[in-house]
Structures are given as C-alpha cells and as structure tokens.
Amino acid sequence: MKQLMAISGVLFVLFLLMHSYGNLKVLLGPDAYNGYAHHLRTFLMPILPYEGLLWILRVGLVVLVVVHFICAYYLWWRASRARGSIKYDKKQNVVNNYATRTVRVGSILVVLFVLFHLLHFTGKAVRIGASNDYTQMVTVDGEQIPNVYAMMAATFNVDNWWALIIYVIAVGVVGLHIGHGVWSGLQTMGWLRENTRHVIVVISGLIGFAVFALFTIPPVYLLITSAMA
Q: What pTM did the predictor assign?
C-alpha cells in the first residue's frame, strides 16, 4: 500500500509539473494559450478521438487522487488499530511530527481543490467573473474551441482579487503536500538514508516550490495585466 501510494504520488507530481508548464503559455498571450489548448484536444488524432488525451488525463487524475487518498486512509487506520491507546515511548522530531499531522488535513484540501478545479474550468459549473467569458468560442486552425484564455482572464481579474488569494493558498497547500509527499515517497522506495537525507529534503522542497511557483505565475500575471488595462 505504501508503494502504491508512492507511485500514485509520483505520477500526480509529474502531471502537475506538465500541467503547470502548459499554463505558462498564458504569458505568451491568447493566441498561444488557445493554440496550446487546441493542440491538447487534437493530440495523437486519429489514434485518439478528439479530446482523447484530455479525457485520459482527467480520468487518470481522478483515479490517482482516489487511489492516493484510499491508501493514505488505510495506512492511517492500520497504524491506529495496531497502536491502540498506547503511546510510543520515544522522542519525536517536532518538524516531522508537525508535517505528518498537517499532511492529513492537506490531503483533504487537495482533494476538494481538485474537484473544484474540475467543476470550474472543465465542467464550467462554477464560474468566477463574467459568465459570457465561459461560453466564448475562438477559431484555431479553422476549428471552433472554447476560449480558455478568456476563462482564465475572467477568473483572475482585478475585480476578483479574492479568487487569486484562494487559488494561491490552495496551490500553496498542494506545494507543501508535494514537498512532504516526495520525501515520504523516496523513503518508501528506500532512497532515504543518512547520507542522502539532506539532499532529499532539499530536492523535496524544491519540487514542492516549483509546482507552487509555476501554478502561481500565470494568475498573478493575468491579475496585474487586468489592473494595468
């Protein structure tokens, strides 16, 4: 179960790095970002159907989150049952103990954020900003696709500054969860030893910060751009 949790976590991190890198296309303007969105919809056609890659990623993301959450809950339940009411008579590392406690809360927040994110940008059931920006269509290579740049710009507009704060906090929780998860996953895989501990701590922190920074740059840029318009 620990190995399954580690593998699902690694795949989740790889997806987030790829997704956050793609979001940087926002900095190049509407044509570049909408062109990127169009490319994702037509990737590997006709081997895959239209939007085939997107649906594989969406379903895969949900499966990874569910598997990861179930594994985490099972391991916590098993450890609690084995320990019972007896406390371990040993000195606990304050930092590790704090991270272990907060990662459980972070797990729930990450799941909620993923569901909200899918309802917002994929299902469009939740709309922030002008509603008509979620129904706009744009022509890319002679094909009509949703104007995803307009959705991003509508969400992270200066009038909706609170949305940016909520998003940054949520992505910060994801980054912290990833930082701890990478460290825990490498420990499960047997890569955490006394001579590699400091290096792995640094690597875990950098990966968590990279995800946070890459996801934060586009919305901050959009809000600043809307404020200057």
A: 0.81
